[in-house]
Design brief:
This protein is an alpha+beta fold and 164 residues long. Helices cover 34% and strands 26% of the residues. The chain has four helices and six strands; from the N terminus they run αββααββββα. A hairpin with a 4-residue loop joins strand 4 and strand 5.
């Protein structure tokens, strides 16, 4: 082989190593803001006295929280009154308040309240309240920002585990 062949092979080898190094370089970073849906932290309060129990900013827990927030129930709209009625006698246990990063790149860097999930004792039903300030384009009455969901045992246990 001549020098030209060695030169081309070495360039291809270096190029291949650069590609492999580039792929592995991003593996140290777990999640992006998009993966977390711009979620910055979760504050957990005791519902009884509204005392702060814990603040969560760990990316893995935030990601798992987002995955549990994908409530899928085809008849959820029809069941809102029924689920709300089932909570009449239930005692509130925890409030999980999620905060997101502000959308604006300039100005205030204070986190914005996104949602509040209220857990109740001895039930799998939760109340989710969307924060008015998270909807920037129009004003929506509060009764249209409250939703009730019935969760699986696994989901409700995950939410409770965040508080413990």
């Amino acid at each position: 082989m001549n020098k030209k062949s060695y030169f081309i092979i070495s360039i291809l080898l270096v190029f291949g190593l650069c590609i492999c190094a580039g792929c592995s370089a991003g593996q140290g970073q777990k999640y992006t803001r998009e993966d977390l849906d711009n979620l910055a932290e979760i504050k957990i309060y005791s519902a009884e006295d509204h005392e702060l129990i814990k603040t969560i900013s760990d990316e893995e827990q935030l990601y798992q929280y987002n995955q549990c927030m994908l409530f899928e129930d085809s008849d959820i709209e029809e069941r809102q009154d029924e689920l709300e009625k089932d909570l009449d006698e239930a005692k509130e246990q925890y409030d999980l308040i999620s905060y997101k990063y502000p959308v604006a790149r300039f100005g205030g860097k204070e986190l914005e309240k996104n949602t509040t999930i209220t857990l109740y004792e001895n039930t799998n039903i939760v109340k989710m309240t969307v924060a008015e300030e998270s909807i920037k384009s129009l004003s929506i009455p509060e009764e249209f920002l409250i939703f009730y969901y019935e969760l699986s045992e696994e989901e409700i246990n995950f939410f409770r585990s965040l508080a413990e």
